[in-house]
């Protein structure tokens, strides 16, 4: 209903806006035609306050009173026409300026204690004073350097490293010797600079990443092994193509990931990530993933000084080449921790195909269920459900396939490898491909409620708690849920077929709705196919009360379909509604575009609107507003 | 101060003149007896005076503006072309930046870092000088300029309201607009409207994002650069996709200096050296493989041809679904994306950590011949996937595919 209201508003707005624009255009168009030299002077006088006085004195020069009168009237006319926009512009300018001055006065300490509002000039003067004092304290950086800059280089460096959360390092290409590393490394890897400089980088790299780093260091800029990729076409280009040529000379870019050792014993006050990592005991977790980006650089040895440690490096070649790079700790540096925080030990994650077959099982399932993942994979989850729960779970299964929301199941019993039952509660959601809106699979987060067999007491209580809102509809629906099966519920059927049947129902449902079913169809052509139909809807839903009449039959017809009927109305309606709305937003504009770029834009806008509608949060909000 | 005094002096002068004027007016009225004339003349006089006063006021004001702009670290050529609002805007940025730097030093002090930090800075310079001798190419000045060059992007400091407090001067290389043109403006004026919510979310200080102070997002920003690298005007801007990474700098003392430090850079797709630990793939827009290079076999065990038509979602660890989903949405909306870390299942069992950098491109035949972007071809997604780790838990079979592989072997 909300959407309808919106649409009507939108229409009304559409009608309004052009009128406004038209009026303005008329005004501005009519101006030049009226203009004569004397009038323009009059107009300019009316436009500019200080000059207005001058203009009025000029007017007195006119001896002919008629002429003056004429001019006055014309000026008045112009005032009427022009004053509004011009004064608006002036006002905006003044407001902007006042706003800036206010901000300024808020930033200047000497202005703050004064309770009264200061005038512009005073604020400006104080700003000058403040700047002078800042300059004094900020030393001679900007004065001394030939090129003034807002930030002294030294500070800039710190900010960059802070923002990047990384460290700069320079590594000789031939032996991997660390020639230079910035101070910030101590905060990141817990090694001091002195420890690192002069050492081989390879001592600090994960053994399995050695080859990777060596490769990056050895492939110097003139090597033919260089394989670059052209972002425009996605094709690999040879290094000798002009695109990279200039770049390669100045130093080929490098971007790679490697795992670097860090000191377990924090020397300094360390950060959260490292702390989390240090608590880990596993050997591999002494490493953190570092993203290195930088470029190759070489200096002719002739320029190099005779002294220093570089001697050994430079004797064999006339160039000393090295990698200059920033290493930044990967922003998701401790995902293992994240994963385990998100999933409690009594939880495990599984993934079902649409028909309820296990396609992914988290290894934690083994400790809970006794099955190895490979024992569950490929089998239908219905084979493990207790018979009493089948109807309920089948209902939830159906629901999850048609809804984007997370669906909670009641407590149910799951047969373990040892024949006993574990009481689980699951949260299911169907993962929908963002592009074509097809259900990829169902993700289920399963929580263990209890291991014991006294199910009646426990789960009965629990289901009362969790499902009291849904209880009534569950009861109502438990019978017609599985039409094919309800008749045979007494007899034993192959449980796995329940899932298949539900999946087929959805496919049929989709086919009936002629919604996207094939992933190979380009979404653009898809939307084009749809557009005439949606166009119809639009032309029909011209802005008045009829819109609501138009929409509701559409909904009820989809409701009338057998599968739709088995759902609580709200959910399926929601889906329908957002879909329709989206189409009608994008539909009409499609026809007017022909070029590829335009098509692209439409696809993008389609997606934008679509995802906005599709996101869980929005969805919920809409749900409430409905 | 002097000027202020001058000002009061002036106002006194005005008032005395006005008084004189009044006297004159009285005399005039008495002698001539034509108040009308007197009135107009009087008005004239007043006008002249206030005109003069206004002129004077404006002169004083522009003098102060001149002083202000001279105090800003600007090049003379830039300074000459600044209008008044810009002067204030830049002054604001300058003051904010200085407070920020002071706070930074302060916060280090608080943490017990301060002394060492600053000392470290000095030592670094000294050390660098030595190093400079050592390698000769690394003189300190060079080293400083190196940071931005290595970054291949620019530094941006945002206030919590989205004001761009600072931008490094190489921003012009990426946006086609100069540092002075942009600084002090609001980021929302220069970013794609559809990304505003995300930016706002990232500017929020930690509350919802838990304790994480890190920021990592992709944003579309206005760029006045034309395709040939020339600077066009602001009206004809294109959207440029930038990957913003950084962290929040919180200041407990006052929220006005809390800010977000970000490095913004275009995705490094175009100059990726494809190492043996990287593979490229092309996907249809729904993330099904349409092409994959040979290296995937050595890295993940899959043969390229068996991947064709498969969805990337089948290959990922279920716990990383949301990460990939976000990546996919970014691609659909913004056309480029960085996935962040996620797990890909290895054919024979277990998984590896990977990160993908991807872009939406017009589809081409993945042939070795000349690239021919065909406009009639549907769009596709190009991914460069970096392998970050070795195979973890290689004995585990997590997905159906992996068990199949086991049986088939």
TrEMBL record, chain A:
Keyword Transcription regulation: yes
Cited PROSITE patterns: BHLH, PAS
Subcellular locations according to the entry: Nucleus
Keyword Iron-sulfur assigned: no
Pfam families: HLH, PAS, PAS_11
Start and end residues of each stretch annotated as Disordered: 33-58, 454-475, 518-578
SMART domains listed in its UniProt record: HLH, PAC, PAS
Domain PAS: 153-217, 355-404
Keyword tags: DNA-binding, Nucleus, Repeat, Transcription, Transcription regulation
Name of protein: Basic helix-loop-helix ARNT like 2
PANTHER family, per the entry: CIRCADIAN PROTEIN CLOCK/ARNT/BMAL/PAS (PTHR23042)
Broad class of the protein's primary localization: nucleus
Gene3D superfamilies: Helix-loop-helix DNA-binding domain, PAS domain
NCBIfam families xref list: sensory_box (TIGR00229)
Originating organism: Xiphophorus maculatus
Biased composition (Polar residues): 33-47, 526-547
Every BHLH domain range: 81-134
GO molecular function annotations of the record: DNA binding; DNA-binding transcription factor activity; protein dimerization activity
Transmembrane feature ranges: none
